[in-house]
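During the second year of the project, the team shifted from modelling isolated chains to modelling whole assemblies. The rationale, set out in the original proposal, was that interfaces cannot be judged from single-chain predictions alone. As a representative example for this report, we include one of the complexes processed in the last quarter. Its constituent sequences, exactly as entered into the pipeline, are reproduced here:
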Amino acid sequence: MEKHVLDKPFVKVEPELCKGCGLCIEACPPHVLEFHSSFNTKGYHYAYYVGDGCTGCGVCFYACPEPEAITVYKKGYEYVGEEVA
Amino acid sequence: MAEKVLKKPRSFYDIYERNPSADKKMPHYCPGCGHGNVHKFIAEALDDFDVADRTIFISPVGCSVFAYYYFDTGNIQAAHGRAPAVATGIKRAHPHSIVISYQGDGDLAAIGTAEILHAANRGENITVFFINNAIYGMTGGQMAPTTIVGQKTTTTPYGRRPQNEGYPVKIAELISQLEAPVYVERVALFDNKHRAKARMAVRKAIKNQVDNLGFSLVEVLSPCPSGWKMDPVDAMHWIEEEMVKVFPLGVYKDITKEVEPYHIEEFKPEAEEIKELLDLKTESKSFARSTVPEKYKNPEIKIAGFGGQGVLLLGAALAQAGMLQDYHVSWLPSYGPEMRGGTANCHVNIREIEIGSPVVANPSILIALNRPSLEKFEPDVQSGGLIIYDSSLIDIEPSRKDVEILAIPSTKMADELGNTRIANMVVLGAIAGYTNFFDLKTLFETLNTAIKRKNLIEINRKAVETGYQFGKEHRVK
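Output from the structure prediction step:
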């Protein structure tokens, strides 16, 4: 298993666990979250990370009412296995 | 923050097995519901203080009724409004547990007002989270006690008018007036700064309990986009623009620095100590058991009559006598709210072995002291059982042919002895005499504890003796 260290922060939105309320998009200070144009299986336009500019502040994590929809990885996060970013 | 990742707290279940829906990963709350945020803050705090294993979470009635789907803690779901009462019981039974009572505004501020006020006033060492969304969300958006003036709901279609519906109830203010609570704060979820504050308040309220400081309550102004018929983002703006005006945010009370932590004392008095405390210390006596014919052994007795006839006392005396002979006994009264009149009955078991249920549905011995009781319970008597009835009050005869019947004019006999009210003791004597269950010595000892007024013991003894002779004479040969 390969060991990774994140060199820049990253936010992951789980499309199937997002209800498309838009609170994270409203909350995100650098405005790097947006509604996806497609639907998830529940019929919501889920939020997604545009791919660049996340500061790892975690604001979206606390704005999101869902327990598992958003995961925020900060700079220096160490992990093994598949790459998250 | 030391953690390099912000992810689902461990205090949530991985998979929500209890949720009957097909999707076991997604909570049932509507998009943008504030419950989710508060759940997350709580779960994170439980993780950080490492107390999830000793936490008991009380779900209310309301949308968060299913909180037990999500929290990997002990869970109990309370009746509507009763979460703080349930929390009180649990905390007292398990003083080392962390008890969280989680309630909405309809639950806490309407039907459960008494429970929350008194739990707070007693200063129960619990943590209460009060989710105020100014509406009954689960039932479809009716007016709640916290609905703000002018707010349109399905039951206030023209907006809440104080002349008609009164003013919103301000719980944080109300609770902070009491002496016992140590920490009361109102927070809101409408923007990043306030969510951060809310998160800190949730942590503090739980920490207070971990430190045994006392009662904490956090009121959270939380969005209900479905109930308010708003988009989740607009709902947040509505909290900021409208709700906060009515429910000002801030710490209403915080005496956590001044109070001494509770010292949890295990109080487990011995049976002897309790007896002494209640002045129940009697010389322990036990009497040899009489020889009881096989068919009368282990009786399941039902005694029924009017309130005031001494139905319950008769049952209690039988159980007491059984206790003196070292039987397992139970006594279960059932009566209306009246002190005199109305119907009363009680169930008595006197067993060689432990009693599973105190309920007697099919008695082996029925004692009927009035006609309605005889008519009502006669069909329930076990075949081969015994019916004893007061023939001076009941003008019919039992119709059953498969049971033994003892007709005793007990009220008349009591009258002749000088006091109508001792009829029940005549019956007590009669049962003992007829079945040979107890001897007179045991019965007399029973009277010493069963009869509170000592000057009445003598006449009761006479009644028991008379009944005993009557029963003995009428034994089936």
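The two ends of chain A are 16 Å apart (CA to CA). Residues 23-27 of chain A form the longest helix (5 residues).
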